[in-house]
């Protein structure tokens, strides 16, 4: 099934229902949204010769046109290649080349000189309005037929651990992922409004499908990005808003909400995930926003759908086991199974940490034209996530760390996440990130990068004293590096690779004996 059938269906069933919003202003109802997608699809086919299976790239900021183009691409049977607009054009050019895209849509249509694009790829202005297709044209009256295994979205990984890879997501993957959402994360109603505050080329963009299926509203903030105060304004005007937010975004929302005395009115759901949410930050978020948070754990290779932690558990601050409950990432979502594997890929019993593996309808078909990487990631039908975690007897999954981030010091494993949790609870710590540094004596040593709330009051000896009261001393950071901010990618994830690189290059850090 072509995922664009959902838009065609919504356009026929509810033509007058509000669909697309720029800020608080409605710009299209479902009838117009479906017609725009179809008209653009006809243009792709008639004027640019796009055929089913061709790749079409989007290198644009968030916008309603983004959604129209995505659906036009699928309507024509082609494959969308959304590229993070914060990448350098040279990086985007690499992706276009790797995907062998025939077209690239950009804001304004003048980002690349023709020689900067691979042969056969043309740049078009994604914001340009298309002329309506003549009413008698029956061409593409309905979306081009597609099988559920056909490719729909070529999703380029952020490449923080090497060259970016194209994750192949099929129409079937996207359908399964979307159907899990109301079952496992949050029911959707036509009164809902999904707000795209994080880049639509990544996780946030994936929320569109179920909201199209349910005939809900789609809102792109006027800033075309994330601004906490703007979000709160949209929530009060539009009501019932839902959004995906990385933990760093939730943290900024909490700061802003406290600053302006806002308590989450008009927000229905904040789905957080994509990186660890520290206990101290979650506590603040629940105190500020109440029962509005749901956690998901996923990765591009099984998008948004490995596990989910329910709103009820997160909100139940009075439960004696609250801290343990919310330290996990919840239970397997409806269309996947989870296993924990040892290094030989044999399943491990509950309680034992190992690599998290996933199998099910949302798991990618493989990496685009990269059989070696596909064979490493997909073993006997299981996706090896590269994340370390354990399942408890009741099926709740706890994520300890990325396997490559685990620090081995003096032969013992230290999971950076647990060290970060302890330091993040210190009242004067705003943000923290822990990495390993090569060490002649210990193999690796633990280094904590800390952003203090107030640089005047915090020092390494205070943090050290805080730490040894709470955790085994072999896990204690050997160094604290104080920073005013931490490097993050455009999805708000802290770039541990940059911090490790910095450690290699700079020796003059504050060392604690
Ligand atoms: P990406 O493919 O860029 O979305 O990154 C996926 C990775 O982000 C996962 O493999 C995890 O390491 C991390 N991640 C995703 N969700 C969570 C979560 N809820 N808690 C902690 N880490 C997460």
Structural topology:
Blueprint: H1 5-13, E1 18-22, E2 25-29, H2 30-48, E3 55-59, H3 64-75, E4 79-82, H4 89-99, E5 103-106, E6 122-125, E7 151-156, E8 166-170, H5 171-185, E9 193-195, H6 208-213, E10 217-220, H7 228-238, E11 241-245, H8 247-260, E12 267-272, H9 279-289, E13 293-299, E14 302-309, H10 311-315, H11 322-326, E15 331-332, E16 336-341, E17 354-360, H12 371-377, E18 378-379, E19 382-391, E20 397-402, E21 407-409, E22 412-414, H13 416-424, E23 429-439, E24 443-452, H14 460-468, E25 479-482, H15 496-505
Parallel strand pairs: 1-10, 3-4, 3-5, 5-6, 9-10, 9-11, 11-12, 12-13, 24-25
Antiparallel strand pairs: 1-2, 7-8, 13-14, 14-15, 16-17, 17-19, 18-19, 19-20, 21-22, 23-24
Helix pairs in contact: 1-2, 2-3, 8-9
Keywords:
alpha/beta; Rossmann fold; 2 domains; 9-stranded mixed beta sheet; globular; binds adenosine monophosphate
């Amino acid at each position: 099934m072509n995922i664009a059938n959902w838009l065609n269906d919504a356009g026929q069933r509810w033509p007058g229902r509000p669909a697309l919003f720029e800020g608080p202003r409605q710009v299209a109802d479902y009838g117009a949204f479906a017609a725009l997608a179809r008209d653009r699809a006809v243009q792709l086919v008639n004027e640019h010769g796009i055929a089913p299976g061709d790749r079409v790239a989007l290198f644009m900021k968030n916008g309603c046109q983004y959604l129209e183009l995505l659906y036009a691409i699928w309507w024509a049977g082609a494959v969308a290649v959304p590229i993070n607009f914060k990448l350098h054009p040279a990086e985007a050019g690499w992706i276009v080349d790797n995907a062998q895209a025939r077209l690239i849509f950009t804001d304004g249509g003048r980002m690349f000189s023709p020689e900067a694009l691979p042969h056969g790829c043309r740049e078009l202005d994604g914001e340009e309005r298309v002329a309506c297709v003549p009413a008698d044209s029956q061409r593409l009256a309905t979306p081009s037929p597609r099988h559920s295994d056909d490719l729909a979205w070529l999703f380029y990984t952020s490449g923080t651990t090497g060259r970016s890879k194209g994750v192949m997501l099929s129409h079937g993957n996207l359908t399964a992922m979307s159907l899990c959402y109301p079952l496992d994360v949050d029911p959707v109603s036509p009164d809902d409004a999904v707000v795209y505050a994080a880049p639509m080329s990544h996780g946030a963009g994936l929320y569109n499908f179920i909201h199209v299926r349910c005939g809900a509203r789609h809102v792109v903030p006027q800033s075309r990005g994330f601004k906490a105060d703007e979000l709160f304004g949209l929530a009060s005007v539009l009501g019932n808003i839902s959004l995906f937010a990385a933990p760093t975004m939730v943290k900024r929302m909490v700061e802003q909400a406290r600053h302006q005395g806002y308590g989450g009115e008009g927000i229905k759901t904040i789905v957080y995930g994509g990186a660890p949410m520290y206990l101290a930050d979650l506590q603040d978020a629940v105190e500020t926003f109440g029962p509005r948070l749901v956690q998901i754990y996923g990765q591009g290779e099984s998008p948004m759908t490995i596990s989910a932690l329910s709103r009820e558990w997160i909100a139940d601050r009075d439960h004696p086991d609250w801290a343990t409950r919310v330290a996990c990432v919840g239970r397997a979502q409806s269309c996947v199974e989870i296993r924990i594997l040892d290094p030989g890929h044999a399943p491990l019993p509950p309680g034992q940490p190992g690599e998290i593996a996933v199998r099910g309808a949302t798991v990618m078909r493989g990496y685009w034209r990269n059989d070696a990487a596909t064979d490493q990631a997909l073993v006997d039908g299981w996706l090896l996530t590269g994340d370390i975690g354990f399942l408890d007897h009741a099926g709740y999954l706890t994520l300890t760390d990325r396997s490559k981030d685990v620090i081995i010091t003096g032969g013992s494993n230290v999971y950076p996440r647990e060290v970060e949790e302890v330091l993040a609870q210190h009242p004067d710590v705003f943000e923290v990130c822990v990495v390993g540094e090569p060490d002649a004596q210990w193999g690796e040593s633990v280094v904590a990068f800390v952003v203090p709330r107030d640089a005047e009051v915090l020092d390494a000896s205070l943090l050290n004293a805080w730490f040894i009261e709470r955790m085994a001393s072999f896990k204690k950071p050997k160094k604290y590096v104080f920073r005013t901010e931490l490097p993050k990618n455009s999805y708000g994830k802290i770039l541990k690779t940059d911090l490790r690189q910095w450690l290699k290059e700079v020796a003059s850090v504050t060392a604690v004996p």
